Amino acid sequence: MQNSYLLEYPAKIIFGCGKLAELPANIPPGSRILLVTGNHAVKSGLQKQLIELLGNFTVIPFSGIAPEPPLEDADRLIELGRKEKISAVIAVGGGSVIDTAKTAACIIPAKGWTADYFSGREKITGKGLFMAALPTTAGTGTEITRNAVLTDAASKIKKSIRHSSMIPDLALIDPALTVSASPALTAASGMDAFTQAVESFISSEANSVSKSLAKSSVSLIYGSLAGTCRSPDNLELRGRVAEGSLLSAMAFSQSGLGAVHGLAHPIGSLLKVPHGICCAILLVPILKWNLPACGSEFSELAEACGGKSAEDFIGKVSALCSDLGIAPDFSLFGLSPEHYPFIIQNCRSNSMKCNPRQMSDNDIENILKGL
Fold this sequence. Notes:
The chain is α/β, with parallel strands linked by helices. The protein has helices at residues 39-44, 46-53, 71-83, 95-107, 114-119, 183-202, 208-230, 235-255, 259-271, 275-304, 310-323, 340-346, 350-353, 361-369, and strands at residues 12-15, 32-37, 58-63, 88-93, 130-135, 147-152, 157-162, 170-173.
């Protein structure tokens, strides 16, 4: 565990039920706002509510970001933002919406298009537009992180664009915004956050601060996620999961992640599996793989979940996934040996580098064979 650390978070984090009302007071006066939402926000009336809330500003709404967003979605925002001379971006939605909006907020005042930065031909060098992120799911934590995950549809490559300028200026987490998320989406998003917390805790780059945040996150999400899926209108439970998601992001933004996320990106891109489901299916097999290197850490996490031993923790994670109705493997999604070379070739991301036990290509293939 490292004893030195750098903390990079938004200039302001606002958390709590009903805090949506504070949004206008935290936007620079006179802003021309690009309001980015998902289609669900349009259907539910949330987009209309936001436009009314921001009545003292010029608001240009945009909806229709795809799950696992392609580069072209960010380009559409960039084009619109430049045309409308946008000065601020507000993203209200899940990880896909916020990641796409974060990308646009950085590139609109710069030069080029998303593919230039995704490929590395261009580098983010300066501050982007004012950016506010309001999550409607409790999962990715992208509202406070320095990266945005996008997919090149042609090559099926899914990876992050990373820079400190990607960190939103404002993260406003109102658990009431997550109530409309279906139980299935709540489970998938929650398992993404849970996995992030676990991987942060055992990361080779973990430090005392990240471990404390990650352990608290594990406890909050483990104790509340299944109940939230059963009682989706329970704001107290929603709040615990949302806080767990926030703490998870605060942890992994310092420590990095691990093999679950390293593998989840190519598998999700290739098979069109929702990211949180990918993480949940991979988590138990990767925990078992990491057990020889993480026995004491798993015992600590077991205590956070009401258990005692490392084996208790793995069993509790397996039971949680089952309770949430998550498939035990990728058979429903069509994973086959012909996919292994692509996955192995594209899993060596920054996430994989922080895994506490290094994996050879043969190790990865053996894990995939069990899925």
